[in-house]
């Protein structure tokens, strides 16, 4: 199946970049995919998944978590502050921490629920007005605010602008992470995960290359 092919490509990209085998975490992005496709990938042994919508994830993952051991679900879509409670209940990692109001809500829920989801700060590396994410220049201040709230983000995440070479964005994200003392990098999707691995990605988010095209109906 496609999953095996993707895993081979990840291993080859790790080797080409002189990185440890297994140093890149594959997040299989299962948003809006039919249940049978997701179950096929679960049956093939994949355990780390990405979702974009709280409500959709709420409907799907509790059942699969009961049936498959060791599942971990990562939130990779925009997160409304009023969904912070559900997000902390549902997700093992949140890649889209992008504003102080959300940081406050997450900090309160993390304390209340006694959970510790892995946190990534989303960076708007292309300075795109319509796109979520902290601007590069604002990142040091944002990190300080997060830490003041008791949050300890572990990494950065980016979605490079459509139609642009993603590599300069991956490089910028890596430099920003180094400057902020963060060791995780969530970058690279179906079209560019090998380039992201060459630039140091620790987490790649691959959807359509594993599951096939998404049908938004
Ligand atoms: C949908 C999505 C992906 C997966 O995209 P593909 O091109 O299907 O691999 C990765 N990251 C984010 C943030 C997404 O929303």
TrEMBL record:
CDD domains: PLPDE_III_YBL036c_like. Pfam families: Ala_racemase_N. SUPFAM superfamilies: PLP-binding barrel. The modification N6-(pyridoxal phosphate)lysine is found at residue 31. One of its GO terms (molecular function) is pyridoxal phosphate binding. InterPro entries: Ala_racemase_N, PLP-binding_barrel, PyrdxlP_homeostasis. Keywords: Pyridoxal phosphate. The keyword rRNA processing does not apply. Residues 3-214 form the Alanine racemase N-terminal domain. Its cofactor is pyridoxal 5'-phosphate. Pyridoxal 5'-phosphate (PLP)-binding protein, which is involved in PLP homeostasis. PANTHER family: PROLINE SYNTHETASE CO-TRANSCRIBED BACTERIAL HOMOLOG PROTEIN (PTHR10146), PYRIDOXAL PHOSPHATE HOMEOSTASIS PROTEIN (PTHR10146:SF14). Belongs to the pyridoxal phosphate-binding protein YggS/PROSC family. HAMAP family: PLP_homeostasis (MF_02087). This is Pyridoxal phosphate homeostasis protein. It comes from Paracoccus methylarcula.
